[in-house]
Amino acid sequence: MIRVNENYAKLQASYLFSEIAKRVKSYQQANPDKPVIRLGIGDVTEPLPPVCIEAMHRAVDEMSKRETFRGYGPEQGYDFLREAIAKNDFLRRGADVAADEIFVSDGAKCDTANIQELFADKISVAVPDPVYPVYVDTNVMAGRTGKNVGGRYSGLHYLDSTQENGFVPAPPSEPVDLVYLCFPNNPTGATATRDQLAAWVEYARKNRALILFDAAYEAFIRDKSIPHSIYEIEGAREVAIEFRSFSKTAGFTGTRCAYTVVPHSVAAYTRKGDAVPLHPMWNRRHTTKFNGVSYPVQRAAEAVFSRDGKKQTKALTDFYLKNAKIIKKGFAKAGFEVAGGDNSPYVWVNIHGDSWEFFDRLLNEAQVVTTPGAGFGKMGQGFIRISAFNSRENVEKAMARIQKIL
Ligand SMILES: *Cc1c(COP(=O)(O)O)cnc(C)c1O
């Protein structure tokens, strides 16, 4: 008898974005003459930087000739890309990361999901609340949690991100084995200071824990004192794996390219307490189950690090940050407490009420789609997330409508 993975039955229905879509659709059907502006989902709207398009075109031409055609590439990514990443994203910032510690992939979503294959079933896992749902759901699928009761899975350790702690939870007093951190954060837009990250690194070293650091939004950091990488913190190379993506940095959400850093020095432990390096394990996993990102896409990603590429991606993230500033200012002016938006494309608004009620109000009265904070976890109740990913015209129009009703 083929048995099913019964852990899947514990998963909560993927309620958030389907529920939003349902409410927007029913509003549009009832009000076909009222155009809706979407500041909900975290997807980019602006086209790829021209350098990426040119690099991709050139690579496609190479694929058209026998002499320059390429078949399977290295599963871990081409050296030209791994070296450009190591040099520009890490060495330039004083973070010690070598090209062969970088694994190029088709997404940080898959990587943050797949990495936990390397760990034992019975480990304790800490996740922030509110949270990017992938971290939680993949551990539920793997059987590391009990049932969901009142919006929380038993067996998971939740790290409350609240207005009081500036949406940056401190390490817990008890030991956990695996910790997910994401800065700049989705959904709150919060960033972690050097000292806050150092406290987590110290905690992980003391408890022989591992930090999974999601830096998908690092390109939005403008404040020079905020670290872009966990490896800017001393001691992190033994206790942290970092995830990066070209999705938000360079508009690759539909193009697909990301990477994961697994330092040679990072380890997990056997039952007896012997250290096992994770680099060879991830290399084995990656080469067994993945066959590499397409050559034209890796060339497009490489172009991000060229002189023009840096200028163009900076302009792209600047554009979204200006949107975020407009959104943040609009809500602040209407008397709301707002977080995020300065080094992040997300603005997190304290609406002092029910997230879904407020969502409905903005949809029905201003025709603006947001994301109810409650959809990201219990601590998100009372907040909404506004995404800066849209055209300037739409953001300005949306904020004018919102200001009129608030
Ligand atoms: C968008 C996003 C990613 C990037 O995912 P990709 O699969 O690389 O597109 C990763 N982490 C978080 C928190 C995100 O919001």
Report on the biggest sheet: 7 strands, mixed
What is the total number of structural domains? 2
H/I helix tally: 12
How many runs of DSSP E, i.e. beta strands?
Answer: 17
Distance between the termini: 59 Å
Mean pLDDT: 97
Helix/sheet category: alpha/beta
Q: Strand sequence of the main sheet, in spatial order? A: 2-10-9-8-7-3-6
CATH topology of the largest domain: Aspartate Aminotransferase, domain 2
Radius of gyration equals: 21 Å
Write out the distinct hetero groups bound to the structure: pyridoxal-5'-phosphate
- Tell me, briefly, the overall form: globular
Describe this structure in words.
The structure is a single chain. This protein is α/β, with parallel strands linked by helices and about 400 residues long. The chain has helices at about 15-30, 50-65, 80-90, 110-115, 135-140, 195-205, 245-250, 280-290, 295-305, 305-335, 355-365, 390-405, and strands at about 35-40, 100-105, 125-130, 150, 150-155, 155-160, 180, 210-215, 240-245, 260, 265-270, 275, 335-340, 345-350, 370, 370, 385. The strands form 5 sheets. It has a 7-stranded mixed beta sheet with strand order 2-10-9-8-7-3-6, with helices on both faces. A 4-stranded antiparallel beta sheet has the order 13-14-17-16. Strands 1-15 form a two-stranded parallel ribbon. A hairpin with a 2-residue loop joins β4 and β5 (about 150-155). α3 runs parallel beside α9. The longest helix is centred in the C-terminal third of the chain and has 27 residues, at about 305-335. The N and C termini lie far apart (about 60 Å). Bound molecules: pyridoxal-5'-phosphate. Pyridoxal-5'-phosphate binds near residues 108, 109, 248 and 253.
